[in-house]
Amino acid sequence: MNLIIPKDYDPKLSVKETQKAIQYIRETFQDEFGKELNLSRLSAPMMVEKGTGLNDNLNGVESPVSFTMKGLPGETIEIVHSLAKWKRLALKRYGFGMHEGIYTNMNAIRKDEDLDNIHSIYVDQWDWEKVIAKDERNTAALKHTVRQIFKVIKHMEHEVWYKFPKAVHHLPDEIHFVTTQELEDRWPDKTPKEREDAICKELGCVFLMQIGGPMKSGKRHDGRAPDYDDWKLNGDILFWYEPLQHALEISSMGIRVSEESMLEQLKIAHEEDREKLPFHQMLLNGELPYTIGGGIGQSRLCMLLLGKAHVGEVQAAVWPEDLRQKCEENDIHLL
């Protein structure tokens, strides 16, 4: 575990006040976000059947929490990693039209996560998805949506400042766009995470584009499952986070794969067998809408806006006792 203790850390709010701020941020943000992107709130599953191919493979190495149930003998049920593919199917099932979309509370368990100040095995995020036209599968449409999300986050900074003026963490006024290849070209000797830190420290906030595919060096900036994001039309919203002196990812999002890009990416990832799964067959048969979507971390957003040193200050999760003790000794009060 890599635990960072900020020098002279002051949590600003008591645990009780922090809980009130968490409630305010979560309730206010989802309303404003839904209105800005024309999204309706929807109920979503915490688990899916393994055989549907709906679960998110993340980097392809994390194994989901799974179990069997009395009512479905012989079928493996998995706790979701995210709802990346489920949302696209839901848009079809529920009859959403062009430029309409959904958002939902997504709660997941990622048991293989490496714990640190910003990573927990418990994931809580707003998962969202929106129908777009095929000719909107381009960089301009992606950037427009990113700017909409950044606008809502910036507005939340002002809202939180009004309610909790001593606690708000001030954010940059602009989001910048940069590709993973541009970072590799500029800093070939740095690791991907070091590049993220360097560009975020320089610019304040960036949307780092084109994650998942191999760069000119043959290496990948980071892993992405090959069957939901189009690796050429995706990215992460990253903020320079002064309390921890590194980049803080708030959202992973992108324009979703078309039939052609999914086949291309499955081949690159040597995952062609997934073509036979029900979700993938629907996509290949033209039965699913073209979409853009992603996830916005609820705890991460609370952490960012309140200037917290540890994600455990804004979410209740499971932590090793020695980590809890060290945090408490340094005024980092884990829930």
TrEMBL record:
Belongs to the class-II aminoacyl-tRNA synthetase family. AsnA subfamily. One of its GO terms (biological process) is L-asparagine biosynthetic process. Keywords: Amino-acid biosynthesis, Asparagine biosynthesis, ATP-binding, Cytoplasm, Ligase, Nucleotide-binding. SUPFAM superfamilies: Class II aaRS and biotin synthetases. GO terms for molecular function: aspartate-ammonia ligase activity; ATP binding; catalytic activity, acting on a protein; transferase activity. Its EC number is 6.3.1.1. It is an enzyme of class 6 (ligase). Pathway: Amino-acid biosynthesis; L-asparagine biosynthesis; L-asparagine from L-aspartate (ammonia route): step 1/1. The gene is asnA. It is found in: Cytoplasm. It comes from the Bacteria. This is Aspartate--ammonia ligase. Residues 23-320 form the Aminoacyl-transfer RNA synthetases class-II family profile domain.
